[in-house]
Backbone:
């Protein structure tokens, strides 16, 4: 009779250990799924942030065609990653999510550089236009003043040289 309680205790311990190992495997799978989901959210956030910076660079006057092409590639890869995640291919989805974050960060850095270059170019162009306008205005006023002085001098001389005709009144 003593062997039966020992066997049932052993069976109970084996069942509990199997249950705990299965439970820890499930928790581990949930944690990896959660971390993968956060990785995909991070990739989505990175693409959104990169797009906003690219838009700001475009507003600053930069040529952002290549950056938009890279962002389109990143969004396609992100779509593939989400599809792989829904299909249960977690490793592939995680790798694709990492690629998306890498591409988005490269686009983000490039967009900052292009935006700064565009704003510097705009500022330099503005300075040149203001300087050229000021110089042209000064030359115009000087030429106008010189011609006015000559016209006034000639007009005054011609007026002084003219013989006035005085009407004679007979009384």
Residues:
């Amino acid at each position: 009779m003593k062997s039966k309680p020992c066997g049932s205790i052993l069976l109970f311990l084996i069942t509990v250990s199997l249950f705990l190992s299965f439970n820890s495997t499930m928790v581990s799978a949930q944690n990896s799924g959660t971390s993968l989901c956060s990785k995909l959210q991070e990739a989505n956030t990175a693409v959104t942030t990169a797009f906003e910076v690219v838009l700001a660079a475009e507003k600053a006057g930069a040529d952002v065609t290549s950056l938009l092409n890279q962002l389109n590639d990143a969004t396609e890869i992100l779509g593939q990653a989400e599809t792989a995640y829904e299909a249960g291919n977690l490793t592939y989805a995680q790798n694709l999510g990492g690629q998306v974050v890498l591409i988005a960060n490269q686009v983000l850095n490039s967009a900052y550089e292009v935006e700064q270059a565009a704003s510097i170019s705009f500022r330099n162009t503005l300075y040149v236009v203001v300087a050229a306008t000021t110089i042209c205005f000064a030359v115009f006023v000087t030429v106008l003043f010189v011609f006015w002085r000559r016209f006034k001098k000639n007009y005054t001389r011609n007026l002084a040289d003219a013989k006035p005709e005085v009407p004679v009144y007979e009384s």
Notes: The CA atoms of residues 45 and 101 lie 9 Å apart. Residues 90-161 form the longest helix (72 residues).
